[in-house]
Design goal:
mainly alpha, two-stranded antiparallel sheet, elongated
């Protein structure tokens, strides 16, 4: 006798073979109804003004911080971007002679290898979460 399976709709009816179990699973379709209910409940929860304000605060903050870090910091996959903080620092401190193995050279290398993108994303997510928590704590849109 095959082991009992846990399947659709939390239905514990004992069925003796796999064919009848699959047939019962497809006929029951309660998992699909449950998923539909979850989707509707999530949409209703998300459309509340205070939840929408928190989500919007998170996304706007995330995008703004990500753009500020990526564009204005200057350590990009193409090298040091012109007119960025990194370019200004390099021209002011080093001129054309950036020392190898230093912090600036390491950050340039990490940026050109694409390793700064996850760092920018992580910092942006942490900052956006902090802003979303402040929006939630202040009770905006309630």
């Amino acid at each position: 006798m095959p082991p009992d399976l846990f399947y659709a709709g939390f239905n514990y009816t004992h069925l003796s073979d796999y064919t009848s179990r699959i047939t019962h699973f497809l006929a029951d379709r309660s998992i699909f109804a449950l998923m539909s209910d979850w989707t509707y409940d999530f949409g209703a929860w998300l459309s509340q003004p205070h939840v929408l304000a928190i989500v919007m605060a998170w996304w706007i903050t995330f995008i703004v911080v990500l753009l500020l870090l990526s564009i204005f910091l200057g350590f990009n996959p193409v090298g040091i971007g012109g007119g960025t903080f990194a370019a200004a620092f390099q021209s002011c401190m080093y001129g054309g002679f950036t020392p190898a193995g230093g912090v600036f050279a390491t950050l340039t290398s990490l940026g050109m290898l694409g390793w700064m993108i996850p760092v920018h994303t992580g910092v942006s997510a942490v900052f956006a979460t902090a802003v979303a928590l402040v929006v939630w704590a202040c009770g905006i849109a309630r």
